[in-house]
UniProtKB/TrEMBL annotation:
PANTHER family: MEMBRANE COMPONENT OF ABC TRANSPORTER YHHJ-RELATED, TRANSPORT PERMEASE PROTEIN. This is Transport permease protein. It comes from Paenarthrobacter histidinolovorans. It is found in: Cell membrane. The chain crosses the membrane at residues 21-42, 62-80, 101-128, 134-156, 168-187, 228-246.
């Protein structure tokens, strides 16, 4: 990899996003709006004294899941447009390496993901009074890693799509199973053995486990750092795989 080439790609993508107001709104605003909808779903629930709100559990998980989904969609469609428009083919005639290109895209969208996570977390804490034991900074960290995971998977899946519709069709294959099996709806220990085994290797599961550690402990735990490290390694591995499958154009 060439750092200069990678940063040049990052700068170009950020400049394009700066002029694409709809994409910026999708990245920065939509997760916060979806979180707002989740809050009002549970606004009128009746709980005995001392029982934590459902929003404190579900809303916390959504801080990771919503950015993951949004960044997957935005990244896969953006990269597909680069390929179908011929921009990618022109870039690859220059000395830039595929890894420089992919990691440059990942860095650009990671910056947007960080901003996205900060906005959503601020809404959760300051407007909806999210109440957990752990630090908001750790929540933002896991949310950012999860959003970058969405970026990496979006870049990988875009290599196998020929149209934007096909890119969106990867959602039920790549994203939805992870949401269903991550432990949000049913605790993993209550799943049958097959589903539990599948859940144990899905990236989103590590994110949910890390957030549960943050929710239940005032200090960062070794388990939380282990889950974060695994997620980071998965992100790097997916980006490397994406660089190997990257094609110049869609035929």
């Amino acid at each position: 990899m060439n750092i200069r080439m990678t940063l040049a790609t990052t700068t170009r993508v950020l400049d394009q996003l700066r002029h694409d107001h709809r994409s910026v709104a999708l990245i920065l605003v939509v997760p916060a709006l979806l979180l707002t909808a989740v809050y009002f779903l549970y606004e009128n629930e009746s709980l005995p004294p001392g029982v934590p709100r459902t929003f404190d559990r579900v809303g916390l998980m959504m801080l990771a899941i919503f950015p993951f989904v949004v960044m997957f969609l935005v990244t896969s469609i953006t990269m597909l447009r680069e390929r179908t428009s011929g921009t990618l083919e022109r870039l690859l005639t220059t000395p830039i390496h595929k890894a420089d290109l992919l990691f440059g895209y990942a860095l650009a969208f990671s910056i947007m993901a960080a901003l996205q996570s900060l906005v959503a977390t601020a809404v959760a804490y300051w407007i909806f009074n999210l109440d957990i034991k752990g630090s908001p900074a750790l929540v933002v960290l896991i949310a950012v890693i999860n959003a970058v995971l969405g970026v990496a998977l979006g870049l990988l899946c875009s290599a196998f799509a020929r149209t934007e519709f096909q890119a969106v069709q990867f959602m039920p294959v790549v994203v939805v199973p992870q949401i269903l099996l991550c432990g949000l709806f049913v605790a993993r220990e209550h799943m049958n053995q097959v589903l539990d085994n599948i859940s144990g290797v899905l990236p989103l599961t590590f994110s949910v486990d890390a957030l549960k550690e943050i929710a239940g402990n005032s200090e960062a735990t070794a388990t939380m750092w282990q889950d974060a490290l695994v997620m980071g390694l998965i992100v790097v591995g997916v980006l490397v795989l994406a660089s190997l499958t990257l094609r110049r154009q869609t035929r």
